[in-house]
Each structure stands twice: as structure tokens, then as C-alpha cells.
Amino acid sequence: SQQGEEDPQALSIQEGENATMNCSYKTSINNLQWYRQNSGRGLVHLILIRSNEREKHSGRLRVTLDTSKKSSSLLITASRAADTASYFCATGQGAQKLVFGQGTRLTINP
Amino acid sequence: GAGVSQSPSNKVTEKGKDVELRCDPISGHTALYWYRQSLGQGLEFLIYFQGNSAPDKSGLPSDRFSAERTGGSVSTLTIQRTQQEDSAVYLCASSWDREETQYFGPGTRLLVL
Q1: Can you spell out the DSSP letters for A33-86?
Q2: Which of A64, A66, B53, B92 is 20 to 30 A removed from B10 (C-alpha atoms)?
Q3: Closest residue of chain B to A34, computed from CA coordinates
Q4: What is chain B's mean pLDDT, rounded?
Q5: Parallel, antiparallel, or unpaired: how do β-strands B65-69 and B75-79 relate?
Q6: Chain A closest CA to B93's CA: distance in Å?
Q7: What is the dihedral of CA A75, A26, A103, B89, to 10 degrees?
């Protein structure tokens, strides 16, 4: 069963705008990760945030984690057409399996 | 360096046939994972290897599915007597021992007719 649930399921914005995606989960975690998937094939790791962290940045990406609400958000600033993809959150409990959400399909319109 | 590779990229088979999917992890990665992504089901964990042993097989959907890993490197996922519901993209990932980040291959798209 899927632990993570992304919101929204689909998001369409204009190039240059910011995109925010949310993820909720159910059980305790060691870390939460965000992955990107283009064209339904391999996933690319974007960022990992540990359970004792609240916010993390990587380039145009900003991730927050609220363990009390069991939720995370991914913000992509100054979006580009190349950011068009599906984005998944995944929760981990150590170096073992990841449990993925259903994903958010992001479309950046030029 | 080389990433995770998977073969074949695409596989079309007839219902009832057996298929083998191969994964070559990143050199030196001790952990290897198989996931399945199908329409409406999202990404599902299948099996996890640490070295050649599989401490977690909890995601294998039936006894028609099996996987092995030899030499702590290459892994093969075998599906026997394929069914149409086995149609999906099968993704392999690997990671360093105790590292949480997983590195994914491009996947094998399996279509069972």
C-alpha cells in the first residue's frame, strides 16, 4: 500500500512561476525523499530530508518537513519547461525499501 | 561513472510465458531493490537485496515472481507464467550500504498480451 499521498495530483503553471507540491504520510520515518520521473521511466533523486530536519535547500528546490503533521512540501522556484515531469515523495526507514506516493504531474507551460 | 542499467528496455510477451529482467547496479553498491510501476498502482516495492541475500521479499505479489542476485552484483527478476496484470514498468535501484538515497535504472517496460 502507498504511504505517501501527494497533493495535487496534477499541477499546470506558467514558466517562471513557483510550483508547490505536498506529501502526507502515515507512519514514523527516518527520512523523506523527493524524486523526479520523466516520461514514465527512471527516477532521479532530488533531495533527502531527515526526520530531525525541518527545511532543506538545493538550487531552486526547497523542501520542508513537519513530522508533527506527517507532511512535507517541495517548492520549485522560477520554474522552467524542463521541470515538466512527475514528482514523487518517498519515505524511508533506514537503508531499506522506499514507500512512494502516487505522484504529482507537473506541467510547465512556456 | 556508469549508472544502474536494466535490460531489456522493452519486453512484449504472451500470456503464460516466462520472462527474465536484468539489473546491473552501480559498481560497489551493496543494496539492490526492485520496484514495479503500473497504471493506477503507483510505485510498489517488490524485493530488497543486501549482498546476495534478500532480507525483505514482502513486496513480491505471488509465487510466480522470484529474484536472485549473484556475486553481490547483477540481479535477475523472473516472472513465471506471465499474466496481463503483470504488465508494468519494472524499476531497479541500488545504493551504498546504509545509504538512504537510491539510484534508479531506466526500467524495463513489460507488456503481456
Answers
A1: EEEEESTTS-EEEEEEEETT-SEEEETTEEEEEETTTTEEEEEE-S--GGG-EE
A2: B53
A3: B101
A4: 92
A5: antiparallel
A6: 9
A7: 140
- What integer pLDDT is reported at residue A1 of this predicted model? 36
Cell of B51: 549482498
Q: What is the dihedral of CA B9, B86, B17, B59, to 10 degrees?
A: 90
Q: How many secondary structure helices (H) and strands (E) does chain B include? A: 0, 11
Instruction: Give phi and psi for A40, each to the nearest 5.
Output: 65, 25
Report how many Cβ contacts below 8 Å link chain A to chain B. 55
